[in-house]
Specification:
- The structure is a homodimer.
- Chain A has one domain: Tetracycline Repressor, domain 2.
- Chain A has 9 helices and no strands.
- Chain A is about 80% helix and about 0% strand.
- Chains A and B meet through helix 6, helix 7, helix 8 and helix 9 of A and helix 6, helix 7, helix 8 and helix 9 of B.
């Protein structure tokens, strides 16, 4: 029980530090100091820093999977409203930390894609899983008549995630939600015309 | 003359290292070793690493300004064709380095936005200058009838840059041009319908 708590505390502390500062400069010593446990405790759970990084990514993935299930399985609103709710949830998340923390996956991708092939492959797999989730939501939007029947849910989802990670990065630079609103606003407007055309038929 | 060459070599070496690895982990010693000059030489040109970082950003900005002038002032093609040419040029640039180098501004933004306010403000200013350049191109596209007359050139340019930086990041993860093509393809398709509507009038 206590062992699980220590491991969890190390991983959450790593999530914070890796999101704000990056992987390479985050020292294990600082994680230990923040959590208040001795070095042996770290190596009891993780063989090395790389394994720790993988555990931090895995923890973030699980956290986001729960969030996405909550939002995208919410049948009380329409599919496109769920995607809008996801955007609003992410905006609240960035505001909460003063726009200093973006997306761990985007951050580590930017930092490590060139440097570490194992991380690169793991991070790309996370983004593909997130794309599948939004693709499912968009397919439901097509089935519900919110999007034109000939819409390509997979391509739109990929476009969303490519641009959304850019918007999260930009919000860290502007320190406000404007880039998130700007991207989402034009993204949803782009989806709207075919839907209107569909309704006219 | 030789002094200018040494400074230039240090700055270009810094551009490579900062784009591939980031600012925090790049040591001055490695820059010196690669360029083959003694430490005193570095401190002759730069008071500290921060000043060196600023010089690297400035050099990248000047390099990109020349590139953009060449592409966006090319009156032999239409305004939208120039933006397409910019995308193709960027694709060639990423291919050249095996998709290991993205955009220095995006990389440093992701790494330093949370950590260093001076860099954050400098990097955001660069992106705003780039947006102005593309905004001018889009305004010419509106004037030339390539885009609907009620198009918002500033908003479209901002949307382009937000998403494009996301696409460059993603291409580092996939190690191919697919995210760049995916983003640009849907971006230009999004611009096309109003243009077609305009022509019908």
């Amino acid at each position: 029980m206590e062992r699980g708590d220590t491991k969890r505390a190390l991983v959450w502390c790593g999530t914070e530090l890796l999101t704000e500062r990056g992987f390479q400069v985050t020292g294990i010593d600082e994680v230990l100091k923040r959590v208040g446990v001795p070095k042996g405790s770290f190596y009891h759970f993780f063989a090395n820093k790389h394994e720790f990084g993988e555990a931090v990514i895995q923890n973030y993935v699980e956290y986001y999977a729960r969030k996405m299930t909550r939002i995208f399985d919410d049948e009380s609103t329409s599919p496109l409203s769920r995607l809008r709710a996801f955007v609003e949830d992410a905006k609240r998340g960035m505001l909460k930390y003063g726009y200093r923390r973006g997306c761990l996956i985007g951050n580590l991708g930017q930092e490590l894609a060139s440097l570490d092939d194992a991380f690169r492959v793991q991070l790309e797999a996370v983004l593909i899983a997130w794309e599948r989730r939004v693709e499912g939501c968009l397919q439901q939007a097509i089935d519900a008549g919110e999007l034109a029947p000939d819409s390509d849910a997979a391509a739109i989802s990929r476009f969303f995630w490519i641009g959304w990670e850019g918007a999260v990065l930009r919000a860290k630079l502007t320190r406000n939600a404007e880039p998130l609103d700007q991207f989402a606003g034009m993204f949803f407007a782009m989806l709207a015309p075919p839907a209107r055309r569909t309704r006219r038929r």
